[in-house]
Amino acid sequence: MAHFPEGFLWGASTAAHQVEGNNTNSDFWLMENLEGSVFAEPSGSAVDHYIRFKEDIAEMAKMGLNAYRFSLEWARIEPEEGQYDAAEIAHYRDVLLTCKEYQITPIVTLHHFSSPQWLIRLGGWESAETPAKFARYCTHVMRELGEWIPYVCTINEANISIGIKKIMKRYELKSGSPGAQVGMNMEKMAQMQKYYMELSKAFGVPPTEVHSFLAPRSEEGLAVIFQAHVAAREAIRQISPQTKVGVTLSLYDIQSAPGGEENAKEAWQEEFLQFVSYLQEDDFFGLQNYTRAVYGPDGLLPIPENAETTQMGNEYYPEALGAVVRYVSQHLKMPIMITENGVATDDDTRRVAFIDRALKGVHTCISDGYQILGYMHWSLMDNFEWQLGFSKRFGLIAVDRATQERTVKPSGYHLGNIARRNAI
């Protein structure tokens, strides 16, 4: 039996918009409910986690998990610029206190893709003013809640727009390449022009200026996101110096076939290395990985025809996680928190196998001296996968959305048993 370090955090992750439901002040809520939306369906009540969070956290503890990564919804807390909702702060305080009650360590994400509608109307994630607005929100949250937050991730997958841009380009070329690590509805991409006209009307800005977090991004906009991280980190440390601060990035295990070494090197530079300077002062790094990407002499190679694939169109390749830990650790001398790793499948036996193979790589990294704080599986529950709706199932817990009844899957008990013995 291979043991993990004492105090290792074992948990699962969620994102507020994907699980809470009725997030009516967010940009995503508006986008989902427009006529001609590219979303397969609206989030609606999602999996009702906003109401049922206590039973969900209790279930995590019962399973054997000791950590929970979840996000606070900026659009709930600051529904209009400069106006903070005390009831929503009280709600998230209840979530944090419930974690404390069940001895679950909270890992809080302050922005997980969805934003207040007012932010988009003011330029969104291309505006040079957004970092200050985000830092102001973070200051308010940490002033109210910081004493119960030991770990905070400022922004989820700050580099995700790079992957989205590549996915859209591959879609245009009709190549059978890896899917995105976020739910994008490529079947509806053809109607985007009309959709952006509707978005323009809804947000009251020109069609080319609807800058939500997952929208195509300029180089300046990409810098805005990382500047927002830096500004938030400084604000958090002033208010809550005991809280450990990091950011999460979406990273493939970038590999090369013969002749593809230079292309793989360029991919690492684009998706990770260019951002290292923004992260050097962080307390930890949030690593999110689901699969690999293999480059040949002509660029990204398609997934092999005989490879097992997931519901997201990714290659089933749990060994990617350990490889990315090793690569990141060469360039960032800080602890790593695995904030997302998982697989979309209806075959839960494949999820169990994925967990085992991924954790074997994690344990080998720890044995070789790499500092890893914990493993957060994506996700706690089957939930709303953005543009793809509720069709993709990542959860350790199944949810019957007609009744909102929860059922722990064998994979949930499996990960919980690993957590209880702190060993694989």
From TrEMBL:
* SUPFAM superfamilies reported in the protein's UniProt record: (Trans)glycosidases
Single Gene Ontology BP term? carbohydrate catabolic process
Q: Which InterPro entries match?
A: GH, Glyco_hydro_1
Molecular function via GO? beta-glucosidase activity
| GO annotations of cellular component type | cytosol
Q: Which residues form a coiled coil?
A: none
**Assigned keywords, A-Z:** Glycosidase, Hydrolase
User: Pfam family example for this protein?
Assistant: Glyco_hydro_1
Family affiliation = Belongs to the glycosyl hydrolase 1 family.
**Name of the featured protein:** Glycosyl hydrolase family protein
